[in-house]
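hey so u asked for the seq, here:
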Amino acid sequence: MALQEYKCPSCGGAIGFDSSIQKMKCPYCDTEFEMEALVALDEELKKEFPDDMTWEASAGGQWAEGETEDMMVYVCKSCGGEIIGDKNTAATSCPYCDNPVVIMGQFQGELKPDYVIPFKLDKKAAKEALIKHLKGKKLLPKIFKDENHIDEVKGIYVPFWLFDADAQARIRYKASTVHVWSDSNYDYTRTSYYSLIREGEIGFSLIPVDGSSNMADDLMESIEPFNFDEAVDFQTAYLAGYLADKYDVNEEESLARANERVKKSTEETFRNTVKGYITVIPEHTSIRLENGKARYALYPVWILNTNWNGNKYTFAMNGQTGKFVGDLPLDKGAYWKYFATYTGIASLLIYLVGRFIF
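ran it, structure tokens below
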């Protein structure tokens, strides 16, 4: 790399050699650099490599003959969701949009899950968690507090792709420190910039990516983690009394999400090793995956969907740990009532304090 191609770590401008000081200098911000430091940086930059985040396709197995005889496919005519239940499942509604679903026929094809985490918490626990979640929310519309919505909680096995990999990573950061001092005439500020490199290996196990397009990724990530130690080899008997979502996002299509989580976790882990700087910004990330493989599992989730003023609200509870999440709507009438009340109280206090002081 030619010297004139170096970029200034401070402002990003091209730097060149200044013969008067025998150093490299940025003509834009006047930052000076020792030649030895730039040579060392050049050697480090040569070690950077492009991302190589590939995986081996290995998830799921084949259904044995007769294994799906008691499994039926239910299709929602509203949102298009396909769910699986046993042949004894009565008329039900879609766990995603609450519209009625219709039986389309016996389940066939697709991959058989490798594992399943059985439901550990029942519908009663899900109802209690929902009540607790709504309790004390004074700005919540009354409809969310009505008992009739609690009975709409549904247990569903959500399909997940689980990714394992070892990552070899190298991350270059742009960091800075600031030193401030004064004398009798002036205040001074000196900002120093550094190029930092972190390199190492990190292992990932069971990175979950939900395989249902009907289920929001951020919602499922919010009820993590699941304890895979309690996972068992899949058996259709675990579906009795529950619904199971039929995956419509396959393993290959889920890799982008898995890679995104790997990259984010790697950058955060390496970033935590950098101490003593005011700012630390990643400039280049190189990640290579090794021993990448995937597994297919069903995880237990309790779901409640309801609508308010044309908007859909979804609540979810981890059917194993009980972690409960969900966005709540705002009752605008109640909001303005409380706003006016507290604004009036605040104005009165300010008035009284003013009278007392002055």
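The CA atoms of residues 53 and 289 lie 5 Å apart. The chain has three domains: 1-46, 51-327, 331-358.
lmk if thats what u needed
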